[in-house]
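Duplicate of #3305? Posting structure anyway:
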């Protein structure tokens, strides 16, 4: 079974949103994946996801329970088949801090190019959780389709 780790800065807004969107999609499609998320900073280790991320997920019918924020580790990188980052800062941090990851890193926005974003904006700063959900939900649908077709390629 393939393992995907979604990564953002603090692991309370974007990456947990992606984790639960993808879990919901995979469940509905009956496609087995191991899905988790982590942050590059560890600043929010042990916390629940941001209440606005959780609220957005609940508003679209996605259960977001049992989440605890964690920092990305080398062990988690090694266990993951794909590491999907939310922005260029996350990409650079993962490449700089961890070994043997170049062949498994993907950018979330690579799966939602039609939306015109190069990065998933951080709603912690923008306050726009709807925008974040729009990008993530579109990208997760296409990522799942690619995984089902086994055509995911790292840059």
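Output from current build:
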């Amino acid at each position: 079974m393939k393992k995907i780790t979604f990564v953002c800065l603090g692991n309370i807004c974007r990456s947990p949103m992606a984790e639960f969107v993808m879990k919901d999609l995979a469940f509905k499609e009956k496609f087995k994946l191991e899905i988790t998320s982590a942050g590059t900073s560890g600043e929010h280790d042990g916390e629940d996801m941001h209440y606005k991320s959780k609220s957005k997920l609940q508003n679209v019918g996605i259960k977001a329970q049992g989440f605890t924020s964690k920092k990305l580790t080398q062990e988690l990188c090694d266990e993951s088949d794909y590491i999907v980052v939310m922005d260029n800062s996350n990409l650079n941090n993962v490449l700089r801090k961890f070994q043997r990851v170049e062949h498994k890193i993907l950018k979330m926005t690579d799966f939602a190019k039609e939306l015109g974003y190069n990065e998933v904006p951080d709603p912690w700063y923008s306050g726009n959780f709807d925008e974040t959900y729009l990008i993530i939900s579109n990208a997760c649908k296409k990522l799942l389709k690619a995984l089902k077709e086994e055509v995911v390629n790292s840059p």
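Confirmed duplicate; merging threads. The helical segments are 14-29, 51-59, 74-79, 88-97, 123-126, 129-149. DSSP finds six helices and four strands in the chain.
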